[in-house]
Specification:
single chain; about 210 residues; eight-stranded mixed sheet; 5 helices; DUF604
Length: about 210
């Protein structure tokens, strides 16, 4: 699939198939803010060396206390919506990109889309991958804000969060998972700071909603 400009919407809601390639990079903005195209790609592929099957895989979880929706695109971004978002809507691609061809056929893609909010204060919060490390209990990825914003917010807003930490185990795909891939689920973990959120990714139970929508 070919497109121009900002690839954020596509990468943040990548299908559960493994990432194969990114091409026509000269037409695409750097996928991480404040980096060159090459540096941004190296940053993404560095994460992929830790868990190649999980890179860009999306999982969604909910903070019931604050009614937030959290979408993790592993190795790339964590998004926090300040309200509950239905799972199918959270999985829709945001139209941050421009069509490859400027005609009616150039806007036809084989996935569901939704509007990309241009105002950063009305948009969901976005935390970009900062670092990856391997520990005895699995892989830890840390995501931080990379773009400045000057927005007013309440004391219960997620905008006070400065860092998101995501914990996961390396994804090993067996034959069953390759034939019928399933999304993973995530949980909000207890945190020691009100400026940090911690998330654990795990396999879904068979009766969990995200398991049934893939």
């Amino acid at each position: 699939m070919d497109f121009n400009g900002n690839a954020f919407g596509l990468l943040a809601a990548h299908p559960i198939r493994p990432l194969v390639s990114l091409h026509h990079m000269e037409k695409i903005d750097p996928i991480f803010p404040n980096m060159t195209r090459m540096k941004a790609l190296q940053h993404l592929y560095h994460a992929a060396t830790f868990d190649p099957h999980r890179i860009l895989q999306q999982t969604v979880c909910y903070d019931r206390l604050f009614s937030w929706t959290i979408s993790v695109s592993w190795g790339y971004v964590v998004q926090i919506f300040e309200h509950s978002v239905h799972l199918p809507d959270a999985q829709r691609v945001q139209e941050s990109y421009l069509p490859w061809k400027k005609n009616a056929y150039g806007t036809l893609y084989e996935f569901n889309t939704r509007k990309f909010e241009s105002d950063p204060c009305r948009r969901q919060l976005v935390y970009y991958l900062d670092e990856v490390s391997m520990g005895v209990n699995g892989i830890k990825t840390i995501y931080k804000k990379r773009t400045p914003e000057n927005c007013t917010f309440s004391k219960n807003s997620p905008r006070k969060l400065e860092e998101i930490r995501v914990f996961s185990c390396k994804l090993e795909l067996d034959t069953k998972q390759l034939l019928a891939p399933r999304r993973h689920c995530c949980d909000i973990l207890p945190s020691t700071s009100d400026k940090m959120m911690e998330i654990g990714i795990r396999e879904c139970k068979e009766d969990e909603l995200i398991y049934m929508h893939n």
